[in-house]
Each structure stands twice: as structure tokens, then as C-alpha cells.
Amino acid sequence: MAAFVTIVGEARVLTDESACEQYGLDWTRFYAPDPSAVLLPGSIEEVQDIVRLAAKHKLAIVPSGGRTGLSAGAVAANGELVLALDRLNTISDFNPVDRTVRCGAGVITEQLQQFAEEQDLYYPVDFASAGSSQIGGNIATNAGGIKVIKHGMTRDWVAGLKLVTGTGELLDLNRGLMKNNAGYDLRQLAIGAEGTLGVVVEATMSLTRTPKNLAVLVLGAPDMQAIMHVLATFQSEIELSAFEFFSELALEKVVAHQDLPRPFETVCDYYALLEFEQPDDQAMDDAMRLFEHCMEQGWVYDGTVSQSLAQAQNLWRLREDISETITPWTPYKNDISTLIAKVPDFLAEVEAVVNKHYPNFEIVWFGHIGDGNVHLNILKPEDLPIDEFKIQCGEVSTWVFEIVQRYGGSVSAEHGVGLLKKEYLEYSRSPVEIEMMRGIKKVFDPQGIMNPGKIFDL
């Protein structure tokens, strides 16, 4: 470790058990962290020096951001070096004309959101972990979240990025250009690559205008087909910035553990949360007219709309607090997607196969149904050992991913593949595609040191 101390300083090379535990895990809890050391570089040059030294000695590196991932993409379980990017946390070079800003990889998502707000602009990529996730990690996993239906994924907001490859070379990709058709866009390869091609150290992020007076509407529905009718009805006349859903069990647990009131007394199997701008009174009038139409059709049983910013925030918490609420149950998460129109049948088949084989498992459903992405969360029974639970959930995943494959969907809509879904990649990608991915990795990372074992094995 002496050579790494020379690069970053003794205080920035951590080997104690507490640090290895903290930096060696993400939000998955199925792997034991075992990094050889945690390194905290303070500059891009230090990152390059670390990678060059690691490549020379063939030492594996796991890039680490906020470690909020859910697929074990940031887990260091085999003696790897953890490269934590927390110190690369500066925001600079704001360009008001192009509406871009330069961010170090360690910038917290919420930090960027607040900076945009100070400029009377908006960074729309948002999710429950915005207060701790980092921009570099968001880019590495192509994070989605709650606004995808209108604003897209993280990749849609990356105007340029700097990547340190597995040889220590620094690539400056796209440089903030809006139009650039000069050959392959290597920036897009790095986005979503989960650190397997290199370390994202800096990014030029795009911003947009601030939305005007957002309103939140929560509706109760009898089934998923009804929710899809609601989506189609509202989208026909209103531009939605979010359309989320969650099950009654999800609502019960959030209300019980987060000290939040139910949105209304009527108990429904599923709930939809809609968000839209209301620049004038007509927007709310239109929303209420559509709500009444859905009630008349039997697609909605009850509903409530926010009357203040505080109420809107509490309604959002009914959806956003689900992941945190169910964490004590060590949930086994499947982050799956299909075409939006296929979601009801897709979800019904998945739920049926899980209930048939494991009727004692509690299933919490929620997700971004407006973009075809649903989250299946299987909660661990208290008396079931974690290893046995993981084995049983592995069986569930095989059945679920067979359904995903039949529906032409994805085994990972937004959380990445990491370690957790690696063995199931073939359900979404052909053998030819996977072999091409391996070839691309070898170009960027010829020694195979960058986050090895994630997504696929070489």
C-alpha cells in the first residue's frame, strides 16, 4: 500500500474494518464486503495514477460513489481496491447560455439539484436516494427515477464526461456539445457501464427550466388494467411529469412506519401517483374533469390532490419512502420492465408464479409504471435464514425472468446488473451482444481490472 500512500497520502488510504464495511457495500445485503483497502483520491490526476499502478500490478478496482445501488455493482467482496470518489465534489463552469454545469463525480445528486435551483433552473433526474447518491454513480448506472416519463434517464442529461480507462488514460468525451456526429459516441458506452470500462471522474450536466407549480394527485384503483386506463386518459390531455404506482401492502407499511396518513380512507389494491404542472387554473380544472371521468368508468375508486407544497411532499413520501421502509425485511429486489401496454398482464403473471411457489412471502409492488418499469420486492420472513432466502429468491428470479424474456423485457430496467443479476443477463441480451460487450471491455480495460465480475465474467 506504500505506493498508494505516495499518491493520495496516508490519511486517504483506509484499511480498518469499519471503513472496509462502509465503502465495500452498496444497498444490497447479500454479500460480505472484503476490500483490501479504500482509496480516496482528491483529483483526476490521482485517479489516473492509482489506475496506472493497479494496472501494472493487475489489482482489481471497484469504483465507489454514494453506494446506493441495488444490484451489488459497487460491492468489493474479493480483496479489490475501492476507489471512493467522495472528494471529487466540486461544481464549476456554469454556462447559462447552454444551461450546462461541470460536476465532479462525487457531487451529490441533491447538491446538483440545489445548484440548479439557485440558477432558477432545474435538474430533473430524481429518486429517493438523491440526498446520498453521487453523479458519477448515477452515470455509471444510468439512474432513472421518478421523472423518466417526461425527462428521461441520466444519459439524457450528460452533455459530456471524463473517463479514466483501465489503462489510466483520460478520455474527454463529447465536451458538452449538443450536436456531434464525428464518429462513435463513446460517452454513451460509458453511461450505464457500471464502472467496468473505467472510472467516471467528471461530467458536464445539462439543466432545464424550472417547472411551474407542480400538483400531485393520488388515485386508488381496483387493478393494474384500470391504472393503465388512467394513464392513457390523463396522457391524452395533460403532460405528466410523473406517473408512479404502488400496492396496498406498500402503502400499509409506509403508513405504519413513517408516521404518514393514508391519502384517503378507501382501501384499494393499487394506487397511482400523478404529477403535473399547473401554470394556470385551467390545468387543475382539466385534471379534475379527467379524474371524474375515470371515476365514472370504474377505473378509480377514490383520490386526493395536493393543496399545498407540504401536502404534495407528503403524498410523494407515500411512494418515495417505500424502499427505506421495507429495508429491515432485507427485500430481494427485481427491477424489471416491459412495454408499457404489456405491464398489467406482465405483472399478473409474475405475481401468480411467486404466489404459487412461495405463498408465505410478502410481495411489495411499486414502480415507474409510466415508463414500463416495475419493482418486485420479496420480503424475507423473520424466521428464514438469509442464505436460504437468497436461494429461494434465486428460484423465483429464474421464473420471473423467463416471463420477462417472453415479454421482450429487461431484467434490469434502471438498477444495473452488478453481481445480483449477472447470471440472468442472457434473458435480456443475446449471446452475440454479450460477447460484443466483453470485446468492448477489453478495449477500454485490457487488464480486466475495472470492477471485474460485474455484469458478466470475462
TrEMBL record:
Top-level lineage group:
Bacteria
Q: Which UniProt keywords apply?
A: FAD, Flavoprotein, Metal-binding, Oxidoreductase, Zinc
A biological process from GO: respiratory electron transport chain
Q: Check the record and name the InterPro entries matching this protein.
A: FAD-bd_oxidored_4_C, FAD-bd_PCMH, FAD-bd_PCMH-like_sf, FAD-bd_PCMH_sub1, FAD-bd_PCMH_sub2, FAD-linked_Oxase-like_C, FAD-oxidored/transferase_4, Oxid_FAD_bind_N
Instruction: Name the family the entry cites.
Output: Belongs to the FAD-binding oxidoreductase/transferase type 4 family.
Quaternary structure and interacting proteins, as annotated: Homodimer.
Q: Tell me the protein's name.
A: D-2-hydroxyglutarate dehydrogenase
Species source reads: Halioglobus maricola
